[in-house]
Amino acid sequence: MHHAFGMPFQKLHTKLIEWYAQNRRHLPWREDPTPWHVWISEIMLQQTRVDSVIGYFARFIEHFPTPEALAAADEQELLECWAGLGYYQRARNLQKGAKRVIEAFGGKIPSDFETLQTIPGIGPYTAAAISSIAFDQPVGVVDGNVVRVLTRLKAIDEPQTPALNARLQPLANAFCAFGQASAFNQAMMDLGATVCTPKSPKCDQCPWKADCEAFAQGLQEILPHPKVRPERQKVFVVSGLVIEGESIWLAQRPHHGLLQGLWELPSIENCNDPAQLEQLGLTCNPQVSWQITHVFTHREWTLTLYPATGKPHGGHYLEHRLWPICELERCPLGGPALKALIAAQIAVPPRRGAGKQPAFQLPQKAAGDPQMSLFG
């Protein structure tokens, strides 16, 4: 076991545990690593930065301290609590999973790696995290940080694919066989996040430097090779900004497809002509606009927002509603709408990827032309 895969596992395990004791990140879900806390944190951390998750985690736990509390919640309440984290399907799947825990396991989250994967929304990675971190089961966690550490450690020269992750899983499991799986997996995550970083890794601070094959070969800046991503589809979108007093008109998207069930500014997709907003009952001032770009996994939106008048109606939307601007914090806004509102200087809570929150003010003048009224 010590030299399986050609590696001194026990020595490396000991080195990393010692490093972790001195260098661990202090994160709220680690202070009380119950299965529920680990589960929520791991779902939130998918596609989202750690520093963005910290505040949302505390708020979510306050609202839904147990699987029972989440299972009983109204979906709108859930989405309002999740508002700002994006990728809202994660929240819906989390609620489905909580309901399954109630129905199948009497409210007690199972410890077994395989059993955990029978719960909606829990795949191999999340199951490994819950099983090892909350229950100290000897299962390796293979996330992006761990993939980077292990591919450099063994100088594995191949693209990042699901097949590579599957190949690395036995390697991660072998480390956990020496015990302290909870601490070891979190140490691996922290090593990748703070030392073995994607660019400019801090090799001089790494406890595994002497055993790292990529470092020995000068490949640490090259490995792992980036994922091969398909070219994104370019989509143009026009949106209308309709303000009445201190409220703003928003529209709810259908419960299927992109941004399902989320709220946005009344919009026409696959279009760059603001006159087309007349389809939604809006009249725009085309001389003033704000433009943002929002990247999805397989497409890229270029959204142009125009000040408008009228009461929006129709389109593919489920509902149009006049939202008080002071209550936008609880509105489950889609990412593009959030960025567009911030570009137009409408104050909304700061969200991941949306830029800095401006001070609240109703827009009155166009940028670059103080004499032009936004609404013509």
Describe the structure.
The structure is a single chain. The protein has 376 residues and is an alpha+beta fold. It has 2 domains: 4-217, Endonuclease III, domain 1; 233-373, Nucleoside Triphosphate Pyrophosphohydrolase. 38% of the residues lie in helices and 14% in strands. The protein has helices at 9-23, 28-31, 35-45, 50-63, 67-71, 75-82, 89-105, 113-116, 124-135, 144-153, 162-176, 181-194, 213-217, 335-343, and strands at residues 233-241, 243-244, 247-252, 263-264, 267-269, 283-284, 290-295, 299-309, 319-324, 365-366, 369-373. The strands form 3 sheets. Strands 1, 5, 6, 7 and 8 form a 5-stranded mixed sheet that branches. Strands 2, 3, 4 and 9 form a 4-stranded antiparallel sheet that branches. The chain has a two-stranded antiparallel sheet with strand order 10-11. α9 (124-135) packs across α12 (181-194), α10 (144-153) packs across α11 and α10 crosses α12. The radius of gyration is 24 Å and the shape is globular. Residues 351-376 have low confidence and may be disordered.
Helices and strands in order:
Blueprint: H1 9-23, H2 28-31, H3 35-45, H4 50-63, H5 67-71, H6 75-82, H7 89-105, H8 113-116, H9 124-135, H10 144-153, H11 162-176, H12 181-194, H13 213-217, E1 233-241, E2 243-244, E3 247-252, E4 263-264, E5 267-269, E6 283-284, E7 290-295, E8 299-309, E9 319-324, H14 335-343, E10 365-366, E11 369-373
Parallel strand pairs: 1-8
Antiparallel strand pairs: 1-5, 2-3, 3-4, 3-9, 6-8, 7-8, 10-11
Helix pairs in contact: 1-12, 3-4, 3-9, 9-12, 10-11, 10-12
